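Before relying on records like the one below, remember that each one covers exactly one chain. Contacts with other chains, cofactors or solvent are not represented anywhere in the record.
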Amino acid sequence: MRFDEQSPRFTPQLVTYLSISPAPRLSARQWGVLLLLQAAGYFGQFDRTIFGMAVPQIQSDFGLSDSEISYAASFVGFAAVLASGISCLSDRFGRARVLTWTLVPYTLATACTAVSTGICSFAIFQFLAAAFITAEGIISHVIVLEEMPAECRGWAIGALNTGSACGAGLALLLFGVSNGAWRLMYSLSILPLLGVGYVRRHLPETRRWSSLKDVSTARALQLEDPGGIQLPTTTMGSPVAEEDDGRSSPSKCQIKPLGQVKQQHAAILIATFLGSLFPSSANFNVSKHIQVVHGFGASGFAKLSLIGGLLSLSAFALAGYLGDRYGRKKLGVVGILVKTAVDVAFYSVAAGADSVAWIILLFCLRMALGMALDTNFQALSGEVFPTERRTTAQGFLVLTAGLGGPLGLLLSTRLVPYVGSVAAASRLLAYGQLICACIVCVWLPETKGRELEEINA
C-alpha cells in the first residue's frame, strides 16, 4: 500500500456506493490511513463485544449472581486507568508507533480469556485486553482528527467507527451460530496477530505530531547554539501553530496546569463522566434484559443485534456528516434528549407477546442513537484539546468515562433493593443524561469546519 501525500483527492467508487451520506474527497494517504485504522478497530471491537452479549452464559458457567457479574464488569471497566497511561505515551513517542504496540498485548490477553478457570482469571485477562483495546481506540481517533481535513473530520470518525462496528457484527453472527460459545469466540482473537507487521510497516505518523516534534527538536538545538538554528515559521492553521509557545514538547506526557484549563476542557470532562455514569446500567443490562426478561435467548438476541446493527450501521457516518454540516454541539444536545427518552421507554416495556414489536423498535433506536452520539462526541472531545496534549487528554477522558461506568453499575446495584428491579434502576439513572445535555448546550464550543489550531488558539 502506497501513501502518496501529493496525489489528487478522490472518492473511491465503493465508498460512494456504500455511504448513505455524501463521502468526501481525500488523498491516497488519508484513505490508506483510514483503512488501516478501520482494520485495527475491526478486531478490537470484535473482542470488546463478546463480554457484553455473553453475560448470561458467563454468569451461568461460573455460577455467579447478578451482583457478582456486575462487580466483575466494574473491575474490567477500571481498565481505563491503564489505557489512559498507555495512550499518553503517543504524545511522547508518536501516534503510529504506540498504536502498533497495543495490538499484540490485546490479542494475547483476549485469547487467554478463553482458558480462564474462574471469574478472577477471566476478569484479569479482560482487564488487560480492555486496557490495550481502549488505548488503540483512543490513538486511532486522534490520528483521524489530526490527518483529516476540517470539513470532514466528523465523517471520517464515523467511517472509522463503521469499520469497528463490522467487527461487532461478526461477533454477533458467531455468537448466534455457536449458541453463545464465548470461549470459542475469545480463542479466535489470536488471528489479528497475523496483520501486526503490516500495520507497523505501513501506518505513517501524523503530520501534526511530526511537525510538533520538529519544532521541539529545533528549539532544543537553538538552546545549545542560539545563533545557528532558526525555528520553523508558524502561522494560524499550520500543524504546530497552536503549540509554538516556547513551552510545549512531545518529549513527555503532559498534564496541563490547573490554572490553564479552559472552560471547554472542564465541561467535556464533566460531561464525559456523567455521560458514562448515568446510562451505564442501561447499556450493560440490555443483553440480559432482551435474553431473559423478554425471552429472546442467546440466538434470538444475536439475530436481533445483527439486524439492528445492520440497520443502524449508517448512523456512524451520517452523524459525522450531520455534525460537519450543522454542528456537533447542536447534534449532541438533540441526540442526548432523544436517547434519554428511548432508554426510559426501553426499560418500561413489559414482557409479553404484545411487546415484541416495541422492544425490537426501541432496541434498534438505542443502537442507532448510541452510534451517532459516540461519533459526535469522539470528534468533539478530540477537537477541543491541542496537539501536544491531545492523546493525553483523550486518555484522561477515557479514564473519566471508565470511572463513571463502573460507578454507575455499582449505583444501579445499590438502587435495586429500593426500586424493585434492575430495569427500574436503569430507567431512573437514564434521566441523569439530561444534565449532560445542559452542559453541552451551555459550555462547549461549536467546532464544525474549524481547524484544530483555531479551536485551541
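Residues 240-249, 254-260 have pLDDT under 50 and may be disordered.
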